[in-house]
Design brief:
single chain, four-stranded antiparallel β-sheet, 4 strands, elongated
Length: 122
């Protein structure tokens, strides 16, 4: 009887661990062999989730009408990177990238913002 409980527990543990896994996302492309440094770059992007407490935040809110809210919650890192590139005219990529994420709760949900800084190159 004890072995049945152990098997059920292990199955639940494996399913929970598999449900928490995701693929790696490459944010920074490999720089070309020859590049020119253009200066400091910085970009922000945010996304929001709605419906009360932390366990119930499951409705993404698109905020395309605001300049730093390009896209949704899941696209915030990519959008912050693109905003950083766009902040320097002629830039095509970034080096020495740093990512900072802030979040805050509001009445019906939460907002998470990412700031990407780095050296713009062409």
């Amino acid at each position: 009887m004890k072995s049945n409980h152990a098997v059920v527990f292990l199955m639940i543990a494996f399913m929970a661990a598999a449900g928490c896994a995701s693929a790696y996302k490459t944010v920074l492309p490999t720089p070309p062999d020859n590049y020119q440094k253009l200066g400091a770059a910085k970009g922000n992007a945010c996304g929001s989730m709605m419906i009360l407490g932390m366990a119930y935040n499951f409705i993404p809110i698109p905020m395309a009408e605001l300049p730093f809210y390009r896209g949704t919650l899941n696209e915030r890192v990519e959008n912050a990177y693109q905003n950083a590139i766009d902040s320097v005219p002629g830039a095509t990529a970034l080096l020495d990238v740093t990512m900072r994420e802030n979040w805050f709760w509001w009445v019906l949900g939460s907002t998470r913002c990412v700031t990407i800084t780095g050296v713009a190159i062409r």
